[in-house]
Design brief:
- The chain has about 100 residues and is mostly helical.
- It has helices at about 5-85, 95-100.
- The radius of gyration is 39 Å and the shape is rod-shaped.
């Protein structure tokens, strides 16, 4: 064999080794991407579940505050009507007190 023949075979060997290394690298990258995608999906689901729970809690708190506000409004109307009756306006009802 000539020097050119051995140089060519060494070059071909190096090219095949490089191709195998690139293929192995591509496989590992694909595995890492797949693992990251799986992790991102589960993180997304956890965030979604956490946000859904927070939304449910906020809705419950909103209803509680609305009920408390309505109760306070009714109590205030009764108090206004009682004050008006005490001051001499006995004809006022709690509904009229709200309109005043």
């Amino acid at each position: 064999m000539s020097a050119d023949g051995s140089a060519e075979s060494a070059l071909e060997l190096a090219a095949r080794r490089l191709e195998r290394a690139v293929a192995l690298l591509e496989q590992r990258i694909a595995q890492k991407v797949a693992a990251a995608s799986d992790g991102a999906g589960s993180a997304f689901e956890e965030d979604r579940a956490r946000l859904a729970a927070a939304l449910d809690a906020a809705g419950l708190r909103e209803r509680e505050l609305e009920e408390a506000g309505a109760a306070a409004s009714e109590a205030l109307a009764r108090a206004i009507a009682e004050i008006r009756r005490t001051l001499g306006g006995a004809d006022d009802t709690p509904d009229q007190a709200l309109e005043a």
